[in-house]
Design goal:
With about 400 residues, the protein is α/β, with parallel strands linked by helices. The protein contains 15 helices and six strands. Strands 1, 2, 3, 4, 5 and 6 form a six-stranded mixed β-sheet that branches.
């Protein structure tokens, strides 16, 4: 039995050894060698087509690749930069290691060129000396202009500090600089300078003589900090009390919890404005500041006149008529907004302050940061306006 099994296994091995007959004989292999020598840069598909035309033998790329190895052929790819001496090969290797295309070095000027909110050279020249103070020791790593542009990106886009793009300085550096400049009052100085330049351009005295007072209630985020509930506006958050001149440019800002009444915050706002600009003689307010608030403000600031501009549909006071004179009341609902003379400018400023996404709701934990953002946004608006009108005049 064992001998029979060995005989059968030997027969099977001999049959497998014979296998499938080779596609190429000696003559065909010589033909393949000649075709490859004539077409050294041809692909395997092109070589198979050429060999089929010469020998009428169609073979696969795998089989052809095996036959080429048996004949001693191998495919060699030249290095980048061509072949030559060792020095040339080394230079080619260095050239191949270079990375061409968009790289980090091209992003160094992206923050200055790609973001439309960045300062132009003319805008920076107006306020550069306020921020470019002298530094002892090691020079600054990041320019003051880049800091201002990073802050503009944060307030315009309404993003958290940590999401600041890498084209700008690190977010923690920008945040600490913003807090420091806010406490130093640099944004307020920036706004005061530009406000004086704009008033001079409009033919007004640099020191204002009249202003308008109003407040705006805004919601707050989950960051925490001081907040309250404004029952009149149905808003839980903070209230921005601002006093502007007759052009709508801010003279003083006080931010409180939304639960603080307008008449309670009015003294601090008026005190800040009058101490800074003693030339203010008249302030226009709405009916929320009338009565004892108005009398208290005039008593604490001799020479200051508080004028109440009431809504035409105000039924609490009505109108005085003479004799049989008939004055039809306008068909206006009490809650309808009407731009009142001398006082509509402060309403417009409140609307402007809600345009940047970060100021739609109060996103900051401290009142000092919220106040600094208002000064900064108003100053940036003035800088763009001054440069745009100057360029228009030159054109």
């Amino acid at each position: 039995m064992a001998n029979d099994k060995n005989d059968r296994s030997g027969e099977a091995k001999s049959k497998r050894g014979r296998g499938r007959p080779l596609a190429f004989d000696e003559a065909s292999l010589e033909m393949v060698r000649r075709v490859v020598r004539e077409n050294p840069s041809a692909t395997m598909v092109e070589l198979a087509d050429a060999i089929e035309q010469e020998t009428e033998i169609r073979t696969s790329r795998t089989t052809l690749n095996k036959r080429l190895k048996e004949l001693g052929f191998k495919r060699v790819i030249p290095p980048r930069g061509g072949t030559g001496t060792d020095a040339e090969a080394e230079g080619a290797a260095v050239a191949s290691a270079r990375r061409y295309g968009y790289a980090d070095r091209h992003r160094t000027k992206a923050a200055e060129a790609l973001y439309h909110h960045n300062l132009s050279d003319a805008e920076w020249d107006l306020v550069a000396d306020i921020f470019e103070d002298k530094v002892r020791g090691r020079p600054r790593t990041y320019s003051r202009r880049m800091m201002i542009e990073a802050m503009s990106y944060v307030v315009r886009g309404g993003i958290p500090w940590r999401m600041l793009p890498h084209e700008f300085p690190p977010w923690h550096q920008v945040y600490k600089t913003f807090r420091r400049w806010g406490h130093q009052g640099r944004f307020e100085r920036m706004h005061d300078r530009l406000r004086g330049m704009w008033r001079d351009r409009e033919g007004r005295a640099v020191e204002p003589t009249a202003g308008a007072l109003d407040s705006q209630s805004v919601k707050t985020s989950a960051q925490g900090g001081i907040k309250g509930y404004d029952a009149g506006k149905k808003v839980k958050g903070r209230k921005r009390h601002i006093l502007t001149d007759t052009l709508g440019l801010i003279l003083a800002i006080v931010i409180t919890a939304a639960s603080v009444q307008d008449r309670d915050a009015a003294p601090s706002v008026v005190d800040a404005a009058v101490s800074k600009y003693p030339t203010v003689e008249k302030v226009y307010v709405d009916s929320a500041y009338a009565g004892r608030c108005k009398r208290a403000l005039q008593e604490s600031h001799p020479g200051l006149t508080i004028e109440v501009a009431r809504h035409p549909a105000d039924r609490s006071v009505g109108r005085l008529i003479e004799g049989q004179q008939v004055l039809p009341f306008p068909e206006i609902a009490r809650g309808t907004f009407i731009p009142l003379p001398k006082r509509w400018v402060v309403e417009r400023t409140n609307a402007w302050n809600s345009r940047p996404r970060r100021l739609v709701a109060d996103q900051d934990r401290t009142l000092a940061s919220s106040t600094a953002w208002i000064w900064f946004v108003e100053a940036r608006r003035l800088s763009r306006r001054l440069v745009a009108t100057t360029e228009t005049d030159k054109a």
